[in-house]
Amino acid sequence: MNDLTTSRLDRQNILNNSIALKEIETELSSHIHGSIWKEETWFTF
Fold first, then answer.
1. Is residue 34 part of a domain?
2. Is residue 3 part of a domain?
3. Span 5-41, pLDDT tens digits
């Protein structure tokens, strides 16, 4: 796995991958609660 903190291209690839984004959303929602806005889940810190 690449270090996403130093690889701009890898970060862009993940953010453009709808499957990866759904996996991230699922993982985050099992630990923190997001807000639903316009049929999307938003996480704020």
1. yes
2. no
3. 677 777 777 778 888 888 887 887 778 877 888 988 8
